[in-house]
Design a protein that fits this description.
Blueprint: E1 18-20, E2 27-29, E3 33-34, H1 41-54, E4 58-60, H2 69-81, E5 87-92, H3 100-114, E6 119-124, H4 133-145, E7 149-155, H5 159-168, E8 174-180, H6 192-199, E9 202-206, H7 218-227, H8 231-240, E10 245-247, H9 254-261, H10 270-277
Parallel strand pairs: 3-4, 4-5, 5-6, 6-7, 7-8, 8-9, 9-10
Antiparallel strand pairs: 1-2
Helix pairs in contact: 1-2, 1-9, 2-3, 3-4, 4-5, 7-8
The structure holds NADP nicotinamide-adenine-dinucleotide phosphate (NAP).
NADP nicotinamide-adenine-dinucleotide phosphate is lined by residues 34-37, 60, 91, 125, 155-156, 178, 206-212, 215, 232, 248-253, 256, 259.
């Protein structure tokens, strides 16, 4: 680069704090809350209710988390805040997608645990390696067809698998691919993210804090200090500055929910995004 010339981050900066859910016309918050590995369900419940009150009203869960205990916590949260105030994603295990009836039964069990009639978004937790993708997608679509899910999507699908999933749909669109993405792990930026931006698939970035490691990285710390923000806020802001990306950090502490909230309403400058692209 010539001295004095302005370089650009790899992707255009998205200033929106509510992101499009595929091509549905609906928007979801740029930051939702994860529910994996909860130690105290009472604390997590309080923290998530607080998040919803702040507008971080998207919960990510899975039938697998806590063997159903995380979904049962979602039920208590829904009863507290009201069904229409929260967008709920759950993920069903790959072996549920052998046929439509098996998938529908698993979705019914999840809906029952969460005390909802309809789940906002149901995902295949990861691809079933022994089943053709079109078989899995047919079973996934059956969940929406029976009114158990408003939207469908996938998780941990590589680009080739995502393409095949999209081609396999007959009636519903794949609105989300939930994958690992953080400022310290930008593998998806090579192929998957550009494809999702182009095709209107929302990325739900999981493990966005690298389980706390982002708070210890010297470059992230130095950027954070310049903005008067925390490293976690910078790490989340980096992700949500990308088009078609939302982050789903997990916490069971109210003060950390407030910290996540502080990642909204502003964006890193292009040169700092560029700096973080190199870490
Ligand atoms: N689709 C998939 O295969 C998949 C895989 C993994 C995760 N997920 C989803 O994504 C969510 C988030 O991912 P994750 O739980 O793996 O990792 P993460 O969000 O990167 O990290 C969560 C961990 O970081 C800690 N933490 C939170 N805020 C912090 C802060 N300000 N400073 C330091 N540490 C902090 C949390 O502890 P405290 O709770 O004590 O705050 C928790 O132990 C999961 O909960 C789950 O819903 C999906």
């Amino acid at each position: 680069m010539k001295p004095g010339s302005v370089s650009m981050p790899r992707f255009p900066i998205d200033p929106e704090d509510r992101k499009p859910l595929g091509s549905t016309g609906e928007r979801v918050p740029a930051i939702g809350i994860g529910t994996y590995g909860i130690r105290s369900y009472a604390d997590a419940e309080q923290a998530i209710v607080h998040a919803i009150e702040l507008g971080l009203n998207m919960i990510d869960t899975a039938e697998m988390y806590g063997n159903g205990l995380a979904e049962e916590m979602v039920c208590r949260i829904v009863k507290k805040v009201g069904r229409d105030r929260v967008f709920i994603t759950t993920k069903l295990l790959p072996h549920r997608f052998t046929d439509p009836d098996t998938a529908v039964r698993a979705a019914e069990a999840s809906a029952r645990r969460m005390c909802v009639e309809t789940i906002d978004l149901v995902l295949i937790h990861w691809p079933n390696d022994v089943l053709p993708i079109h078989v899995q997608i047919r079973a996934l679509e059956a969940i929406a067809e029976r009114g158990l899910a408003r939207y469908i999507g996938v998780s941990n699908f590589r680009l080739s698998e995502l393409r095949e999933a999209i081609e396999s749909t007959s009636k519903y669109e794949i609105v989300v691919n939930q994958v690992k993405y953080s400022v310290l792990d930008k593998a998806i930026e090579k192929n998957l993210l550009p494809f999702c931006i182009k095709n209107n698939i929302l990325i739900q970035a999981y493990t966005p804090l690298e389980r706390g490691a982002v708070a210890r990285h010297p470059t992230i710390i130095s950027v954070a200090n310049r903005y008067g923000k925390t490293p976690v806020q910078v790490a989340l802001n980096f992700l949500i500055s990308r088009p078609m990306v939302v982050a789903i950090p997990k916490t069971e502490r109210i003060e950390r929910v407030d910290e996540f909230y502080g990642a909204l309403g502003w964006r890193l400058a292009p040169q700092d995004i560029e700096l973080l692209e190199k870490v």
